[in-house]
Amino acid sequence: MKVHVGPVALPELEAAVVAGGAELSSAADASALVWYGGPPEQFAELDHPGLEWVQLPSAGIEPWAASGALRDGVTFTSAAGTYAQTVAEHALGLMLVGARQVHLMARASRWAKPDGMRGVHGSTVGILGAGGIGRALIALLRPFGVRVLAVNRSGKPVDGAVATWRADDVEGVRELLAESDFVVVAAPATAETAQLVDADALARMKPGAWLVNVARGSLVDTGALLAALDEGRLGGAALDVTDPEPLPDGHPLFQHPRAIVSPHAANPESLLVPALARRVEENVRRRLAGEPLLGVVDRAAGY
Amino acid sequence: MKVHVGPVALPELEAAVVAGGAELSSAADASALVWYGGPPEQFAELDHPGLEWVQLPSAGIEPWAASGALRDGVTFTSAAGTYAQTVAEHALGLMLVGARQVHLMARASRWAKPDGMRGVHGSTVGILGAGGIGRALIALLRPFGVRVLAVNRSGKPVDGAVATWRADDVEGVRELLAESDFVVVAAPATAETAQLVDADALARMKPGAWLVNVARGSLVDTGALLAALDEGRLGGAALDVTDPEPLPDGHPLFQHPRAIVSPHAANPESLLVPALARRVEENVRRRLAGEPLLGVVDRAAGY
Questions:
Q1: Band of residue A303 on the pLDDT scale cut at 50, 70, 90
Q2: Interface predicted TM-score (ipTM)
Q3: How far apart are CA B153 and CA B164, in angstroms?
Q4: Phi/psi at A251 (nearest 5 deg)?
Q5: A123 and A238: one domain?
Q6: Are B100 and B125 in the same domain?
Q7: How far apart are CA A283 and CA B118, in angstroms?
Q8: Positive or negative, the Cα torsion across B221, B224, B230, B236?
Q9: How do residues A59-104 score in pLDDT, each as one tens digit?
Q10: Are residue A110 and residue A246 in the same domain, yes or no?
Q11: Which among A85, A106, A255 has the least Cβ separation from residue B103?
């Protein structure tokens, strides 16, 4: 099998192709393409009738679906699941930062214990959109003896959660919001999840609870969140993603005493590339062995 | 058994005494004293010939040993082990903050990803002084697939560590320093552990590694650490304890780009009292049942 890595020929990914057992080639000769470093609009430049499989570098495929590049006759695989561990680790870090008020410690220039420090141990953690990241987070939380509540699209019970509700079960979602000390947003960005956490949802959260968003900024109403943080009823918000994104310089969320902004850094480049390389190697190996590929894109579902 | 709680009669601890099966009394009538809220110098005010047992509120007992209050004829018990879960949770939080550079994010007023972000997953974690806190930290780290290296006084293998060296095994300690992505200091403060992490130890640490101190400030040479941080070879330092403590206002460690100072907050009051109350209840129950007390102080060892 001949594989091209492009439009940017990242050496780590080329090495993964070779480690998986395939041969590197020009785009024109390749039956498989490992996409890296360009927008989907550039796909036409590398596409050709002999192309059978394209490995995409991201977990979400919204821009690819929107661009129309996901053409028939080619199998597309996303990197879904590849980064779940990395993002879950970041989410746990943000939960601990909120619980222990580390953002205030980081900003201080004098020795003073912040008020309101608490523990993650023994708390209740609600996960809105418990997919791959949610499962990875539940695994990390196991030694903390937490009670996990989950919401997902299907309502199919999530391992490690004491309750799982369907996303359209209004009462279930309200129960999660009311009982959780930490509400972690990890759902995909779709029309249904836009502004999922709005003023009403924020008002239903437990006093002192922390909101952690590692999904997409569009899932949280920024204005409503800022009002809720100013009011002081919530513990705070830890946001890896925001709306708008990037936040403008000096936006009040940056230095808000009840907020910590992580600039879409849950899956940093330094960790992304090795994780993607592992996925590329595994999928190349699978392709050569005739085994099912990981992360095959379902065009109809949009992920 | 008559027990006095003082010099501050904290209701939560008085309730624990009663829950353990003993009777509350004045200091003069008590055969046991649960110490809370005063320095060891005040001990003489509550001491009397009928006193048999004193439960101290802290895990470390240096000020008690230094004050000479640990007199013969009385059994002293510390709170060692009581706070291990809480402190380990804080230590993991500080590791994640360092790995993901959350201290820099917390200080920022604009959207910019810090350099040098990394993961805890798959890293090597060295624990200097792997006692109760170390064991609790290893339990929290289990889902991260880390490699744990440990040093303790006895060299007795620590569960979950791939290697354990005796504290006086110079080569072993050097191996831990050289291989660890995170060096967590969790040893008691004794004459032997003073300035355990000095300029030489810091120079032996892996480039980019983070130092996390949740033990006592005296275990790390502050001047040498600051020099090492300025030099930029280390990833950084997350310090819950410092020397001197408190750090003076505006000390360069507070806003150092490679440091986060947590003001001796790993075991915040809000979590300390419930944990201490559980220990008091358990030790009162044990005393009444003639069972061995938890945390009996070894005057010779100094903890």
A1: low
A2: 0.88
A3: 10
A4: -55, 140
A5: yes
A6: yes
A7: 25
A8: negative
A9: 878 889 889 899 999 999 999 889 999 999 999 999 999 999 999 9
A10: yes
A11: A106
Out of A147, A233, A245, A256, the active site residue is: A245
- Indicate yes or no: CB of A249 within 8 angstroms of CB of B139: no
- In angstroms, the CA A34 to CA A9 distance is 9
Sheet of strand A182-185: strand arrangement? A163-166, A147-152, A124-128, A182-185, A210-213, A236-239, A259-261
A219 shares its domain with A273? no
The per-residue DSSP string of A167-214 comes to TT-HHHHHHHHHH-SEEEE-----TTTTT-B-HHHHHHSPTT-EEEE-
CB atoms within 10 A of CB B288: 12
Give the closest of A96, A112, A119 to B263, CB-based.
A112
The domain total for chain A is 2
CA distance A99 to B90: 9
pLDDT of residue A191: 83
Q: Is the residue at B71 inside a domain?
A: yes
In one-letter notation, the amino acid at residue B292 is P
Is residue A303 one of the residues assigned to a domain? no
Q: Report strand pairing: A236-239 vs A210-213.
A: parallel
Question: What mean pLDDT comes out for the span B204-231?
Answer: 97
Nearest C-alpha neighbor of B239 from the set B223, B265, B219, B261: B261
Q: Which residues contact A45 (CB under 8 A, 6 or more apart)?
A: A7, A27
Q: Write the pLDDT tens digit of every residue in B5-17.
A: 999 999 999 999 9
Based on the domain organization, do A24 and A93 belong to the same domain? no
Comparing CA positions, the residue from B162, B153, B202, B211 lying closest to residue B183 is: B211
Q: Is residue B144 part of a domain?
A: yes
Judge whether residue B300 has pLDDT over 80.
no
Tokens representing B293 are 């007390």
Q: Which residues contact B195 (CB under 8 A, 6 or more apart)?
A: B218, B219, B220, B221
- Domain membership flag for residue B237: yes
Phi-psi group of B75: left, alpha or beta (phi > 0 → left; psi -120 to 50 → alpha; rest → beta): beta
Distances (CA, A) of B154 to B84, B150, B166, B172: 19, 11, 6, 13
Both A48 and A190 in a single domain? no
Neighbouring-strand partners of residue A212: A184, A238
CA neighbor of B83 nearest in space, from A119, A210, A92: A119
Nearest to A205 by CA among A175, A235, A178: A178
pLDDT (0 to 100) of residue A302:
65
Query: What is the span of the domain harbouring residue A32?
Result: 2-82+268-289
| Least CB–CB distance from A265: residue in B97, B100, B254 | B100
Report the chain A residue with the minimal C-alpha distance to residue B272.
A118
A269-289 vs A84-100: helix crossing angle, rounded to 10: 150
Q: What is the CATH number of the domain that holds B239?
A: 3.40.50.720
Q: Could you tell me if B10 and B114 lie in one domain?
A: no
* Residue-wise pLDDT tens digits, A162-202: 999 999 999 999 999 999 999 999 998 888 889 999 999 99
A window 119-158, beta carbon within 8 A of B: 119-121, 139-140, 142-144
| Same domain for B216 and B93 | yes
B106–A102 CB contact, under 8 Å: yes
Which tokens sit at A50? 């002999």
